[in-house]
Design goal:
Blueprint (H helix, E strand, L loop, with lengths): L2 E6 L7 H14 L3 E5 L2 H7 L4 E3 L27 H13 L4 E6 L1 H23 L5 H6 L4 E8 L11 E2 H22 L2 E6 L6 H10 L3 E3 L10 H14 L5 E6 L12 H12 L3 E5 L11 H20 L7 E6 L2 E6 H16 L3 H11 L3
Parallel strand pairs: 1-2, 1-4, 4-5, 5-6, 5-11, 7-9, 7-10, 8-9
Antiparallel strand pairs: 2-3, 11-12
Helix pairs in contact: 1-10, 2-3, 3-4, 4-11, 6-7, 11-12
The structure holds adenosine-5'-diphosphate.
Adenosine-5'-diphosphate (ADP) binds next to α4.
Length: about 375
């Protein structure tokens, strides 16, 4: 029987609650004791009432709820060695011997760090007299299982992250609404969508809403005078009878010199060069709000169940895994590799090797 802590960390994402529910209920079904850790890594650092055993009924109704009911936070203290050492002590005090982390790239990086440093923290706590030798021997390693809760769909090792589908759904609904008013007035709209350094949401929103032009970080415009080519494309659509123009821009969009491309700038171009009545809509947090779509409930549930199985299968040599989904199958892969692979996309963009960035996103990620 294991005592399994569960936390959600970093940016919230729809589908985190269904995932927490699955972890709690699967743990109980498999004779383990699940523990909520509230407010992400902050709860680990604070301990006390922020760590509480979870009961079956505590997660009733979680399938339909957006956000994360156990809270999330950006925790500065956990970035420091001292904060992580306190976290180790709090986990041991509560008898927790496995941890499930649902979060983005940053949260999983933190989780992997905690796992790697764990033995050294335990030794230090013993040296400082904060735990006995017997306890130190009992808690020689911590099994951590990660799941990617992120609307950005920006992590390697999984085709879809928990929350991305719901966010895309919300973007499509919002753009549809914008388009009906745009059409009435023959307006142009520049819509900025989230995704940080990943263009997945913007790309899929553009395909799904029939956008005329798209800007994503992985594929900046190939020419310096992209403004002229954008105007030409938009004008061709209008000449062919379209009453609206829609440009979708990812929040992390850049030109080929890595300068940001902002929605307001695009608007100015459309107003001055084409004379279009142009408005900007920055969708913002509406994208991460509201109830999870079916797919995120399903994905969170399947992955949450697999997280418990992965913990029960593990032995002391098993590296901490991240649970993903590739080609419709739930997968388990080393967390370290997933994080490294994700980091390579950012490095390729920084090096202006956009071809590699695209290849990495589309092959390693199967996207
Ligand atoms: P996300 O998980 O959505 O990418 P963040 O990047 O903000 O969000 O990370 C969430 C939290 O994870 C941070 O507030 C911090 O507590 C922890 N974290 C992130 N990166 C690291 C790191 N390199 N080392 C230790 N902890 C980290």
């Amino acid at each position: 029987q294991k005592n399994i802590g569960i936390l959600t960390s970093g940016g919230d994402a729809q589908g985190m609650n269904p995932c927490v529910r699955a972890v709690v209920r699967m743990a109980i079904a498999r004779n383990c004791r699940p523990f909520f850790i509230y407010e992400g890594y902050q709860g680990l650092v604070d301990g006390g009432s922020k760590i509480k055993e979870a009961k079956w009924s505590d997660v009733s109704g979680f399938l339909a709820l957006g956000g994360t009911m156990i809270g999330t936070a950006r925790c500065k203290a956990f970035r420091e060695l001292e904060g992580r050492r306190t976290s180790v002590l709090n986990l041991i005090k509560n008898g927790i011997d496995a941890l499930v982390v649902i979060g983005g790239d940053g949260s999983l990086t933190g989780a992997d760090r905690l796992r790697a440093e764990w033995p050294e923290h335990v030794l230090a706590l013993e040296r400082e007299g904060l735990i006995s030798k017997e306890t130190a021997d009992k808690y020689r390693a911590l099994m951590i299982v990660g799941m990617v809760g992120s609307i950005d769909n920006d992590l390697a090792s999984t085709d879809m992250t928990i929350g991305a589908c719901s966010a895309l759904e919300r973007i499509c609904e919002s753009v549809d609404a914008i388009l009906s008013t745009a059409m009435s007035h023959q307006r142009a709209f520049v819509v900025e969508v989230m995704g940080r350094h990943c263009g997945w949401l913007a790309l899929n929103a553009a395909i799904s809403t029939g956008a005329d032009y798209l800007f994503i970080p992985e594929a900046p415009p190939s020419k310096d005078d992209w403004e002229a080519s954008m105007c030409k494309t938009l004008k061709a659509s209008r000449d062919a009878g379209k009453r609206t123009s829609l440009v979708i821009v990812a929040e992390g969009a850049i030109d080929r010199h890595l300068n940001p491309i902002k929605a307001e700038y695009i608007k100015d171009i459309l107003c001055t060069r084409l004379g279009y009545d142009t408005r900007v809509t920055i969708l913002g947090h509406v994208q991460r709000g509201g109830a999870p779509a079916h797919f995120d409930r399903f994905l969170g549930t399947m992955q949450g169940a697999e997280a418990i199985e992965a913990i029960l299968r593990a032995n002391s040599d098993t590296p901490s895994p991240v649970i993903g989904m590739l080609e419709n199958k739930i997968t388990t892969q080393p967390m370290k590799e997933a994080i490294e692979l994700t980091g390579q996309v950012a490095l390729a963009i920084e090096a202006k090797d956009f071809e590699r960035a695209i290849t990495l996103r589309s092959s390693a990620f199967s996207k």
